[in-house]
Design goal:
Elements (H helix, E strand, L loop, with lengths): L1 E5 L2 E4 H4 E9 L2 E8 L4 E10 L2 E10 L3 E5 L5 E9 L1 E6 L6 E4 L2 E7 L4 E5 L5 E9 H6 L21 E3 L2 H12 L4 H28 L4 H15 L7 H8 L3 H12 L3 H19 L4 H7 L5 H12 L3 H13 L1
Helix pairs in contact: 3-4, 5-6, 8-11
Organism: Tenacibaculum singaporense
GO molecular function: DNA-binding transcription factor activity; sequence-specific DNA binding
Keywords: DNA-binding, Transcription, Transcription regulation
Length: about 325
Amino acid sequence: MEIAIVNDETLYLKNILQLQNKNINCGITTCVYTVNPSYGSGIITSYYFDGLLITIINARFKHDFLFTSNHNLSSLDLSVLIEGEKIIRSLDSKNDLILEKNESCLLYSNNEENKAFFYRDKPINEIKISMYDSFIQKHQMQDLLSNNKVFGLKKTENFTQQLTPNMEKVVNEILLNSQKGLLKRLFLESKTLELLHLQLAVRTEKASSSNENILKKIYKVEAILQTNLHEQISIQQLARKVLLNQNVLKNEFKKLFDETIFNYSKKLRMEKAKSLLAHTQKPIYEVADMVGYKNPTHFTAAFKKFEKVTPKEFRKNYSSLLKN
């Protein structure tokens, strides 16, 4: 049974979601729902096959909603929140689990009532993957549900973590994929396993770290680099911002991203520059400034070393490609 509670009123989920389309193709059941305009707006798409349920939510609700699910089935749930905020309430957990933008959460639900709270007027973009017993057994993942110190998920602790760049890449691939039938089924199964692997890899890294806060600080540095491409920030400045030793920062960053901070930052700048050159008509000196190069000549040299062509040649080649 799945219900929602709003303003002390209990509603069945079918009152809130309106089924627009349902089809079965190569064993994969696809359902597309729209949110009843009385309660909000948006689209919710679900895919189910072989004990795997993938739900993609892109919606906004007019009220605060507490969704309750009680289907008497055990499942390993991986939630990825791309936008918005979600509160997960579990009977086994002493505290609410708050999932925020660009965070993921891995939890084991053992035949219990699960509750998820969404705030009104906040956009929700989430991928929720529920892996049931048949899927878990098929891929021999029983160790995830054991008392294994690294992977055991029966403990009541916080399993939320920041999305890594690789996880974001997989999430985008899932959202943009338009395949159908067997190809869709194979794609979703492979991407589910890839996301689970990435989630557990970070979890293992955390378990082996002497200081769990280091990982969050490294991701904070990565976020600073992503959002400050127009500035050249030194390692000393980054270390000071996150209160981390410079050597620890450099070593842990390279271990996590397999790149030095300098190379990682440079790649971000060059990718941003390529996008600006391809999709805008901004002059080269302005593009240079937007990616942290105050001297256009230095930018041109760096860009050519990275792309093997100058910014002007890259823009010209891209324009020619579009015409063809």
